Amino acid sequence: MNSLIELLHIESVSGDESSMTDFLIHYTHKRMSTWKVTPEIYFGDDFHDCLLLKFGKPSTAVFAHIDTIGFMARYENQLVPVGGPEIIEGTYLVGNDNLGPIRCKLHSYEDAIYHDFGRPIERGTRLSFEQKVTIDKEFIQAAYLDNRLGIYSALQLCETLENGWVVFSTYEEHGGGSMPFLLNFIQKKAPVKHALISDITWVTDGIQHGDGVVISIRDKYIPRKKFIEKIISIAEKSGVPYQLEVEGAGASDGREIQFSPYAIDWCFIGAPEDNVHTPFEKVAISDLDAMVKIYKVLLEHL
Amino acid sequence: MNSLIELLHIESVSGDESSMTDFLIHYTHKRMSTWKVTPEIYFGDDFHDCLLLKFGKPSTAVFAHIDTIGFMARYENQLVPVGGPEIIEGTYLVGNDNLGPIRCKLHSYEDAIYHDFGRPIERGTRLSFEQKVTIDKEFIQAAYLDNRLGIYSALQLCETLENGWVVFSTYEEHGGGSMPFLLNFIQKKAPVKHALISDITWVTDGIQHGDGVVISIRDKYIPRKKFIEKIISIAEKSGVPYQLEVEGAGASDGREIQFSPYAIDWCFIGAPEDNVHTPFEKVAISDLDAMVKIYKVLLEHL
Amino acid sequence: MNSLIELLHIESVSGDESSMTDFLIHYTHKRMSTWKVTPEIYFGDDFHDCLLLKFGKPSTAVFAHIDTIGFMARYENQLVPVGGPEIIEGTYLVGNDNLGPIRCKLHSYEDAIYHDFGRPIERGTRLSFEQKVTIDKEFIQAAYLDNRLGIYSALQLCETLENGWVVFSTYEEHGGGSMPFLLNFIQKKAPVKHALISDITWVTDGIQHGDGVVISIRDKYIPRKKFIEKIISIAEKSGVPYQLEVEGAGASDGREIQFSPYAIDWCFIGAPEDNVHTPFEKVAISDLDAMVKIYKVLLEHL
Prior knowledge:
The structure is a homotrimer. By secondary structure, the first copy, chain A, is an alpha+beta fold. In chain A, the strands form four sheets. Chain A has an eight-stranded mixed β-sheet with strand order 1-2-12-3-13-17-15-16, sandwiched between helices. In chain A, strands 4-5-8-7-6-9 form a six-stranded antiparallel beta barrel. The first copy, chain A, is built from seven helices and 19 strands. The radius of gyration of chain A is 19 Å and the shape is globular. Chain A folds into two domains: 2-68 and 134-301, 3-Layer(aba) Sandwich (Aminopeptidase); 70-129, Beta Barrel (Elongation Factor Tu (Ef-tu), domain 3). Chains A, B, C: Keywords: Aminopeptidase, Hydrolase, Metal-binding, Protease. Chains A, B, C: This is Putative aminopeptidase FrvX.
């Protein structure tokens, strides 16, 4: 789990993901000699801060977003949210501007948010939750499990993947915007019929820690029934523990596949977390294990 | 009107439209020998559950969505809406899961919705309004006139159509998502400049039962004035009774044409209904007749 | 500033921009002999009411929307907003229908809006704010500075531009819809990596009249940090006065670039105004000057 700990300490608030991209490019080059299949690698200015790995002859693509929620400095000591972070009085935030490193506390007052840093922070500076990782036998707790675990699971998949795209997308927490050009590229280079969203979902009254990886039948958006049934049937045969989610809200990179100009079936599959979008997101390690396993099974059988 | 009665009894809640697609494919193969022009037919996995009919050399496409609003079983006895159904205490709902057929009543309590079925319903199971069709000399009343009448009108159009696309789309009631790939295909195969949305709209303070088919000048979205004027001018000459709608809300497959990467003019044209998104939607038969007629005229003169 | 005064007196509420398009086509043909580079000109039915000018070998595109907010006549004496106009009791509105010219006053009552014209106005008729332009040494005040100033600035840019697209888009005030097909055309004809949105923003607690052109770090949507930093660095060296905006709301044609299938970096750059979406929008002339200047600098150095 060393690579996961590393992932958790990289700051990449939406729109400023290049540190994470650099890490992933470096990781890929270092590790791919041990992978079963050597992927074609696509990144650089034509892909903004995204990274695509093409293994063999893909019919399925796996997407993991590499950005996180956070905050941006506005005027005076005001902050504007990036994505939808929970606003918790006194939360420690960190970042950097041209004057140096920043560590400050969040305060909220009448629906507005402020920082208490001892000097003005340059306009547009991004701030992240201060990271604190806790791991015991049962649980991992940290900021940004959403979506460091999705990235981690996708990287585990790379080790044995024979055919498929593994794609690291940006901006997801703030409305998206990289998926359309990623899909455009994928469908021209080596088109797919299926997409899986490697991301983290919610513990709710129907989804519990320890009951397995979540296959999402719907969130705010609804994938096609035929495809969900195919996935459930493969999962059922695999013996990997899974649970079925039915929500009326929430969205993922799947949304942009649904509305893309391609007939690609999609499904969100990932471990559930508690304390969503707080500095102490919490996931059961057995659910993360099931997540890693189900992706290996699905990419073989879809 | 036998085919309309059949259409009204097929369940196809958004994301699970394959029964309707199968019906339409069968209907087309059975009837097309009597049609003036034999269309090219496109369907299958590359089109998800959509169906496209290409007649002659098209400059206009007609879109009718084949999905309906409904409900999906969540956890315990909870339901989540699909699209925007009216929540009416005691409404009968029907469906099927792996344990058999389902008939139950809807209950609402503090903004949540429940069913009263005697056993748990499998997660993700879709439920529809129980169908009851009533037809007299003046009116037809049933669940899902929206958009069975739009499909019916499009099928009537097929009988005499010489040039044009007739397209059956999916997911419309729940945010859309098939239009982008349908438009991508159409613009590559035989591109169009105009699109008409064959769908059902609302009786309001400016739109009355019996006053003719509705030409919508705007809903939440605004088609181009030049195109609307052309349509009104053709309608005016035709003698078919019509009324003009101006609304600030509501949307249709036209929305996805507006935001598509093609400069295609669009307009929503359809009969108005009362009791929108309830089990007892109501449309004047004379308005449906006018709808069928105006499409024949427009496809000839646009 | 004569051309600006002319621009301000043309009515072009979203969906009915053809008068403005005609003016711009005429203007271009009249003036382009004095421009440093003669552009290729694209307009006509394939572009709806948009106009594109291609200068040399573009790597950047500048977008200025030519539509305005306004109102549309509904039933009886009701009005529906087009875009988001401020509703100010007693505001004078003007327009035309088939019965002749219209001048009336706006009234609001319980969240609905009405006009007081002496006869019914034809359904779907667009009404604009009555125009009144006031210019002194420091300020210009008028209806529709948003986005007549953006158009004006783009036209000034044309005089010396060597390489770049200058694009006049439609529908922006009402959700957009021309950008996707404009981008599709641009990326096929002469693709770009950068887009600048020539539009007018807001005076707020961090943005003041007279402090220079606004470079927007974010509005509701967030452009990529790397690109914003490049723009700020060019602006800094240029000596043109500028100020940095960080907002949580508001959107522009940049939104549709963010969600396009192309990896195009974008940034909103324009003068700030007070009294947004009222008949008396107000902009400092020095900020407009800075806007004109920064575009010339950026198109040379990006």
